[in-house]
């Protein structure tokens, strides 16, 4: 019997993290949760720790350290807090693979440390490659580290490429649900609220990624991530809207053949594939029934109504620090929108302004990327407060 794969789960209390633990429950003979981390949800983190009994728990908010320590006092679990602890635990010898389910640029530093330490990576944090794709992929290559995609779209491409890595790729086709505003025009969306934007028709996700889906920025970030994950030039990566979210993405090969991966709109399957690769293990998760599903349709994205997608392509074409600026500006703008401080179309406006003002550079370290991220966000917040 194969040894258990020892997992550090970063962001265990979020949407991806909780689903990853559902997968772990299915395969206790294969997966051992060694590390659990969360930023602020101490109560759920404690509940998870008492069930999975990891070696280490990290709470991001240092003020909650004693609360978590006291709750887990009798469980023989080490408890730490803060960013440094997060960077340290991913390098521990008891960890084989790090699953990064942290939202946003906060996942950048711990994943870089994990890659440097030779840990295999299951990547749900797309910002890691959006912000610092060249640095991350080069460091992974130098350290013999595989990056297993967890995003359903990139998992679909990865699965479609199985056995095909020697065959030239003509196109990658990333599917988008279209979000809650598919079919709407710009005039329809001038006054939409965050409550409307958070009502995704197919997927249950965190608030930030749900807003990104509503603006189509999520697809823009996935295009940039795919460029680095699969080594495919930007001009060979397309986006199509597929409202049923059954075809998760496709690969077109040089001979014209197109391979796709299909499944229900459920993240547990791509999480499981990343954690148990190269094996496909039988689970009791729901299965796709094509007859019950019915028609599958596809359409072009509306780039006029959803300008965030072309902004992502532009930032990636410019290269250097520009994808980092794009991501930082988007995080800041989405945060303002979720706090009801700006409107829906202020999100692309603030991103476009940030890209226009940014000075081009080519960062060479995580610290440089984080500095650009911080400066961009501060500039966004300052410009907004001055209006």
Q: Helices, strands, pairings?
A:
Elements: E1 5-10, H1 15-26, E2 31-38, H2 42-52, E3 56-59, H3 65-71, E4 78-81, H4 83-89, E5 97-100, H5 108-116, E6 120-123, H6 127-142, E7 147-149, H7 152-160, E8 169-176, H8 194-197, H9 207-215, H10 217-230, E9 237-241, E10 247-253, E11 258-262, H11 268-276, H12 290-293, H13 308-318, H14 322-338, H15 346-357, H16 366-385
Parallel strand pairs: 1-2, 1-5, 2-3, 3-4, 5-6, 6-7, 8-9
Antiparallel strand pairs: 8-10, 10-11
Describe the structure.
This protein has helices at 15-26, 42-52, 65-71, 83-89, 108-116, 127-142, 152-160, 194-197, 207-215, 217-230, 268-276, 290-293, 308-318, 322-338, 346-357, 366-385; strands spanning 5-10, 31-38, 56-59, 78-81, 97-100, 120-123, 147-149, 169-176, 237-241, 247-253, 258-262. With 387 residues, the chain is an alpha/beta fold. The strands form 2 sheets. It has a 7-stranded parallel beta sheet with strand order 4-3-2-1-5-6-7, with helices on both faces. Strands 9-8-10-11 form a 4-stranded mixed beta sheet, covered by helices on one side. Strand 5, helix 5 (108-116) and strand 6 form a beta-alpha-beta unit. The model has no long low-confidence stretch (mean pLDDT 95).
Uncertain spans, ≥5 residues at pLDDT below 50?
A: none
E-strand count: 11
Shape: globular
**Strand line-up in the sheet with most strands:** 4-3-2-1-5-6-7
Number of helices: 16
Order of helices and strands: EHEHEHEHEHEHEHEHHHEEEHHHHHH
């Amino acid at each position: 019997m194969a040894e258990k794969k020892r997992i550090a789960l970063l962001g265990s209390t979020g949407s991806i993290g909780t689903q990853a633990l559902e997968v772990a429950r299915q395969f206790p003979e294969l997966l051992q949760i060694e590390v659990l981390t969360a930023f602020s949800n101490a109560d759920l983190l404690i509940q998870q720790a008492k069930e999975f009994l990891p070696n280490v728990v990290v709470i991001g908010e240092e003020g909650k350290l004693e609360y978590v320590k006291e709750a887990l006092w009798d469980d023989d679990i080490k408890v730490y807090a803060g960013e440094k602890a997060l960077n340290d635990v991913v390098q521990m010898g008891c960890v084989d693979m790090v699953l990064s389910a942290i939202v946003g640029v906060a996942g950048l530093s711990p994943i870089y440390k994990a890659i440097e330490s030779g840990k295999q990576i299951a990547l749900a944090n797309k910002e890691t490659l959006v912000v610092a794709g060249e640095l991350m992929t080069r460091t992974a290559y130098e350290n013999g580290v595989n990056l297993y995609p967890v995003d359903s779209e990139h998992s679909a491409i990865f699965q479609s490429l199985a056995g095909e890595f020697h065959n030239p790729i003509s196109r990658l086709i990333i599917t988008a649900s279209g979000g809650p505003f598919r079919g709407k025009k710009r005039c329809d969306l001038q006054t939409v609220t965050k409550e409307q934007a958070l009502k995704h028709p197919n997927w249950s996700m965190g608030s930030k990624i749900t807003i990104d889906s509503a603006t189509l920025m999520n697809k823009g970030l996935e295009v940039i991530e795919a460029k680095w994950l699969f080594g495919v030039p930007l001009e060979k990566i397309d986006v199509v809207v597929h409202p049923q979210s059954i075809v998760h993405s496709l690969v077109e090969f040089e001979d014209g053949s197109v391979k796709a991966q299909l499944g229900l709109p459920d993240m547990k399957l791509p999480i499981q594939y990343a954690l148990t690769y190269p094996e496909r293990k039988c689970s009791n998760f729901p299965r796709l029934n094509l007859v019950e599903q019915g028609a599958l349709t596809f359409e072009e994205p509306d780039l006029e109504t959803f300008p965030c997608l072309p902004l992502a392509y532009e930032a990636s074409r410019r290269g250097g620090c520009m994808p980092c600026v794009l991501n930082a500006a988007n995080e800041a703008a989405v945060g303002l929108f979720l706090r009801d401080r700006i409107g829906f179309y202020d999100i692309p406006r603030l991103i476009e302004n940030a890209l226009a003002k940014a000075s081009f550079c080519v960062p060479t370290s995580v610290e440089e990327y984080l500095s650009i991220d911080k400066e961009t966000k501060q500039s966004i917040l300052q410009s907004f407060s001055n209006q």
